[in-house]
C-alpha cells in the first residue's frame, strides 16, 4: 500500500482512500513575475508524478494549481518593462505554459487565477471578520489575528520561534502581533490595481488566495496539499489557519513538501542572482533528461544542482532508449507470460513508488530492466519485447520513455538546414490537417514539433512557428 510522508505528523502514513473517492490535490502555483526556474520545475514535476501514479493505481484525481497574477513583484516588473499589468501577466503565463508543456506536465483540472476569485476571497474575509479571526488595522488593511487561532504553528512546528508567543498577552485578544498577516491590502490612492470591497478599494494578500480557491473548488477536504518546502512557513501555516478558522471541519489529509534546489551551496533565489530558468535547460537538454535528473533525487531531499549531472541523466536515458531500439513494445502481451520474472521488476518498481514516491529507486529499477532487455535481446527476442513493453509502461508512469527510441537517440537539439526543412514540412502538414478539421492528426504533429523544440502559433488561415528559446 502507498505510504506518504505527512509534514504535519512527520510520519509516513497509509494512503488508504477508497478508489471510488475523488482525490483532491492542491499545489501552490507560480507567481508570474518572471520566467519559471528549476525550483518550479522540480516541484511541479514531482506533483505531476504523484498525479500520474495515483491515476495509475486507479484513483480518480482532481488536481488544482493556482496562478498568482497580482502581487507587488508583478506590479514592479510590469512597470519596469513599461507594459500594462494585464499584458505582462498574459505574456508570463504564456511562457510558463510553454515551459510546462515542454516538460510534459499534465495540465491541472483547474488552474484558477487569483484575479478571477476576488469575490470568493472577499466572502471568506467577511466571515473571518465576523468570527473575530480578522480585524481592521489602523491603516485600513485587514489582518488575520494569529492570537485567535489557537493551533498556529502546528503545521510548521514554528511555535517556539514565533514572536507571537513572546508578545503573548492573554488578557488582550485584540493585540496586534508582528506575525499577523494581511488578508486585504487597502489601496491608498496609488496607481496600483484595486478591487472594490466592503472595506474600500484594495487587493488581497497572498495567503488568502489559496484558502479561497481551495474553499471554492474543494469545500471541506483536500487529500494532498503540496508545494515547495519554502512555502511551509508562513504561507501554508497561514493558509491552514485561515481555512480552519473559516470552517472548523476543513481538513488536509497529507501536507507534502518538495525539497529546495541548492546552487553553489546557496538556496536558489532571485536576490542571489543564482537562478537557472527552465528555458535555459530546455534549450540544452531533452525534457525527459531534465525530468529524469529531478527524479534521481528523492523529492523531500535538497537537490544540489550541478549541470554535469544532467549529462549523467542523459547518458542513462540514452542507454535505456538504446535497449528499446528495434524492440516492439506496442503489442498485446499474454498476462501470464513469464510473469514471475516480469514481476521481479514490476513489484520492485511499485514497492519503491509506494514508499513515499521513492523515484530514485524506481529509476534504478528502470535501468536494471533495461540491462536485462539488452542481455536477452539476442537469445530471446520475444521475451526482450515483452520486457521492453513493461519498461515503457513503467517509464510512462514517471512521464518518461514517451519517444520513439530513434527520435530520442538521433534528434539533435541544434537545427541543421535539413531539420529546418522537416520542421517547415511538418508545420504545413499540420496546417492542412487544421483546415480539414482533422484535429487529432493536427495535435499529433504539434506534439512532434514540440519534441523538436518548436512551438506552433495558429492564425486564422495559417500557422507560424518559432523555436523555444
Ligand atoms: Zn498556496
What does this molecule look like?
- The structure is a single chain.
- This protein has 469 residues and is an alpha/beta fold.
- The chain has three domains: 18-272, Rossmann fold, CATH 3.40.50; 317-410, Anticodon-binding domain of a subclass of class I aminoacyl-tRNA synthetases (Four Helix Bundle (Hemerythrin (Met), subunit A), Up-down Bundle); 417-467, no CATH class.
- The protein has helices spanning 38-57, 72-80, 85-102, 118-130, 163-166, 206-218, 232-246, 278-284, 287-295, 307-324, 339-354, 359-376, 381-397, 405-410, 417-435, 439-451, and strands spanning 3-6, 11-14, 22-31, 60-68, 134-136, 142-144, 181-186, 202-204, 221-228, 251-258, 261-263, 266-267, 303-304, 454-458, 463-467.
- It is globular and about 80 Å long.
- The model is unreliable at 160-175 (pLDDT under 50).
- The structure holds zinc ion.
- Zinc ion (ZN) binds at residues 28, 210, 235, 239.
